[in-house]
What we know:
By secondary structure, the protein is α+β, with helices and mostly antiparallel strands. The chain folds into two domains: 2-78, 2-Layer Sandwich (Alpha-Beta Plaits), CATH 3.30.70.1280; 88-169, Alpha-Beta Plaits, CATH 3.30.70.1260. The protein has helices at residues 19-28, 51-66, 77-85, 106-113, 144-149, 163-169, and strands at 2-7, 32-36, 42-46, 72-76, 96-102, 123-127, 130-136, 159-162. It has a four-stranded antiparallel sheet. The radius of gyration is 16 Å and the shape is globular.
Amino acid sequence: MRYVILLRGVNVGGVKVKMLELRELLEERGYRDVATVLASGNALVSSDASAARVKADVEAALRDRFGYDAWVHVLTTDALRAIVDAYPFERGREGWHDYVLVAPDPDVRRQLLERELDPARERAAEGEGVVYWTVPKGDTIDSQLGRTIGKAAFAPHLTSRNVNTLERLLR
């Protein structure tokens, strides 16, 4: 099975994981066809293990090697393709970012979506295991949803990626 591994919170806030070191770690753990994309904690691997087993293994390996509370999200490339293809907002609008918040837990998605958003500043919609989000450039961190996803309580439960990054993972 071909998987996409999305690390949460690396190379920001003091947690440094070089992509070469990540690739080496994944290869040492027995994953095949390992590739990293960008410097923000994105990897592709092949494995016969289940997504849940890959998630548990990679989180433990990252904690052991790099000494931080590692959280990752593991999706098949087919699932990621379906998520990207279902993006509900107009893509590539001038001055806007298009994001996917990977949040497998329905309660987490509910908490994110119950926020009252100003549609002139940001919009969100639920997808399969994700929340789709669009926000003007420059407002990401200060927006209602941006402030929410930055809270420590959400760290183990979600990660965000620009849709352009997700498309790069699928090439």
